[in-house]
Amino acid sequence: MNSQPEEGKMNTRKSRIGIALALIAAMLAATAIYVHAKQAQGNPASVAEKENAADTIAPAVEAFPMQVATNGRPDYMNNVEYTDSTHSRVKIAVDSSAVDLSKAGEYPVVFYAENEAGNVAQAKTSIEVIDPKEKIIYLTFDDGPSPNTPHILKILRDNGVKATFFVTAQWPKSLPYMTQAARDGNVVAAHSYSHNFKIYSSLDAYFADLERIEQEIEKYTGQRTRIVRFPGGSSNHVYRRYHPGNRQWIDTLKAALLKRGYQYVDWSLDSKDADGNHVPVTTLVSSACHTYHPQMCLLMHDAAAKKTTVEALPAIIKYFKAQGYKFGTIKSTDYVCHHGEHGMWPN
């Protein structure tokens, strides 16, 4: 008489065990799909299986600073990058409701990335709206960081201005100065890891060198850059040593750089501190201090031997302040200063 209830209990236990085993099997299957897809690296079948697994991971999204002239048309989508772990299609939305394109200023922008599973991520950045008639001077320093860098940073702080540093790795012990430069609100951009003109021997050589300095910038500032200055500038002739029969090779390099999402920056004003290691301060100041255009990009150097550049800097800053110039930094690929051009933004 008591066998029936016991049999019912056993059936119940078997049912619960069966459910538990099914759940474990499902979990293992999901794990197996993930591992299999990861190992397959592009096998269409395994990628499809991975996409069928439960997706709870939001896309990775990164947004970059922007610049635009007043009443211009920002290219928002050119300033966001995103990836998704399941190769899902990603929808991008932009919240630019706080932006007033008719008025100069810096405004917040938020990007939202949503994959097919409904997972959402966001990235915040800013857009700087600039009046083309506004007076702006961009102080730039090539070749550092070096033992001179902390002196330059102090002068900038004391005067309440910011600059853009196109860095190298020529003085390894000085590389940590990049951290302080970024903390102070300056921009750390790429010049070259080696500053050896052999980087112009091939596209592979150039981009290998660029990747090395990018890694250093990321190590000391926490982020990479999309702003680059070529050693010698974009109109240099040094590359002809390696491409004597191809005078357009530098144009191929520039196009390849732009295609990868970078912007190269030249200068429209030269301090002439590259003419030697002990150029007199008076010469540097007279070369640097001109107002022939509302917006100018000034070339200076942060190499260890450029001590007179450090000495000239306070007078240069004082001059541009007296002329009513604002001090800008180059943080957006929308900023264009190529040889033969001034700092202008496409509409």
UniProtKB/TrEMBL annotation:
SUPFAM superfamilies: Glycoside hydrolase/deacetylase. Residues 135-328 form the NodB homology domain. GO terms for biological process: carbohydrate metabolic process. CDD domains: CE4_SmPgdA_like. One of its GO terms (molecular function) is hydrolase activity, acting on carbon-nitrogen (but not peptide) bonds. Pfam families: Polysacc_deac_1. It comes from the Bacteria. InterPro entries: Glyco_hydro/deAcase_b/a-brl, Ig-like_fold, NODB_dom, Polysacc_deacetylase_ArnD. This is Polysaccharide deacetylase. It comes from Sodaliphilus pleomorphus. The lineage of its organism: Bacteria, Pseudomonadati, Bacteroidota, Bacteroidia, Bacteroidales.
